C-alpha cells in the first residue's frame, strides 16, 4: 500500500511540473508574438497616410495592421503588412 501511494504521488508531481512548464512556455510564446503599436504622429508617416485622413482606430492581427481612417466625406479601412509597410487592401465605407 505504501509503495503504490509513493508511486502515485511521484507521478502526480511529475504531471503537475510538466503541465506548469507547458503553460509557462505557451505564455512566453504568445507574449513574444504580440506587437506593441503606439499611436504617434510619426506612426502615420511610416504607412504613408495622407494628410486629409485622420486615424480613428487601428488594430493589429496576424502581421497586418488595420486602420480605420476618416475624412469629412469618407471612411476607409486600409490593411497594411507590418513587415514592409505595403498596402494590401482598401475598403471604402462611405
Shape: rod-shaped
| Range of helix content | 40-55%
Q: How much is the radius of gyration in Å?
A: 24 Å
Oligomer: single chain
Give the beta-strand count: 4
Mean pLDDT: 82
Distance between the termini: 75 Å
Major β-sheet, in short? 4 strands, antiparallel
- Give the structural class: alpha+beta
Spans of 5+ residues with little confidence (pLDDT < 50)? Answer: 39-45
- Helical run tally: 2
The figure for the number of domains is: 2
* Helix/strand order, N-terminal first: HHEEEE
Sheet-strand content, in percent, reads 25-35%
Q: What is the topology, as strand order, of the major beta sheet? A: 1-2-3-4
Describe the model:
The protein is of the alpha+beta class and 94 residues long. The chain folds into two domains: 1-34; 41-92, no CATH class. Helices cover 40% and strands 30% of the residues. The protein is built from two helices and four strands; from the N terminus they run ααββββ. The chain has helices at 2-33, 41-46; strands spanning 54-61, 64-70, 75-81, 87-92. The chain has a four-stranded antiparallel beta sheet, with no helix packed on it. Strand 2 (64-70) and strand 3 (75-81) form a beta hairpin. The radius of gyration is 24 Å and the shape is rod-shaped.
Amino acid at each position: 500500500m505504501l509503495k503504490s501511494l509513493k508511486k502515485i504521488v511521484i507521478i502526480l508531481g511529475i504531471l503537475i511540473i510538466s503541465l506548469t512548464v507547458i503553460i509557462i512556455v505557451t505564455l512566453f510564446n504568445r507574449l513574444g508574438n504580440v506587437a506593441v503599436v503606439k499611436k504617434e504622429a510619426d506612426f502615420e508617416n511610416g504607412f504613408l497616410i495622407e494628410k486629409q485622413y485622420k486615424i480613428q482606430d487601428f488594430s493589429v492581427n496576424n502581421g497586418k495592421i488595420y486602420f480605420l481612417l476618416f475624412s469629412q466625406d469618407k471612411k476607409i479601412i486600409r490593411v497594411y503588412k507590418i513587415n514592409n509597410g505595403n498596402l494590401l487592401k482598401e475598403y471604402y465605407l462611405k
